[in-house]
Description:
This protein has one domain. The chain is globular, with a radius of gyration of 20 Å. It has six helices and twelve strands.
Amino acid sequence: xxxxxxxxxxxxxxxxxxxxxxxxxxxxxxxxxxxxxxxxxxxxxxxxxxxxxxxxxxxxxxxxxxxxxxxxxxxxxxxxxxxxxxxxxxxxxxxxxxxxxxxxxxxxxxxxxxxxxxxxxxxxxxxxxxxxxxxxxxxxxxxxxxxxxxxxxxxxxxxxxxxxxxxxxxxxxxxxxxxxxxxxxxxxxxxxxxxxxxxxxxxxxxxxxxxxxxxxxxxxxxxxxxxxxxxxxxxxxxxxxxxxxxxxxxxxxxxxxxxxxxxxxxxxxxxxxxxxxxxxx
Length: 281
């Protein structure tokens, strides 16, 4: 099963292309958040955590997991081409993540772009940046040395409390969240199923270049992307068969019918334990 997982990851890594960008910016700031989340809403012992990164420029920001960010960096430098299997395994471990998406804010202007790769397909959907109606409250506290203020909002089935600071006057935050008069330092839903906490804020000495090409992504709806993601997660073999149809570069996986049945049973059990997405509606 480990070899099968590595093969699926290799499929995703080798099909990445680099195209001319439609948007460019320089990331001058980096925020490290620790996300603590409960993937199984019925099991409090399922709580786990992952490091998330927010890069911010003058006009554009990118939010993703650390693993996703490192994988994207390897794509850009093409360091994975020709890698030996021991090296590949080490890099696969380094870029391991439960969150394969990236969220770009202000591409295009006043929009949020949610991107996700499913096999060969780079998919993207857009939403208005003004998704959130915030209630700013008088309570204050100090977080990581920053004076912060409390705010509340409701988003897709969850009630959230945020703590933001105007000492970093950048209207941004983890995931899709933004719209407050400062950077969000902490964010949690009322059940504490998703808790983002700032670990570090950095002003980058050497800004990182961002290039974003609309042509690299297939624009779709949120509903369609979530449906394709669900189909892939439930049966990656069928998704691979569909991807091979009409493609000149077919990918096959040598696996016996028994191994396939066992893997699908394992997938079903895992999905049953991952029943608590950040967006419930």
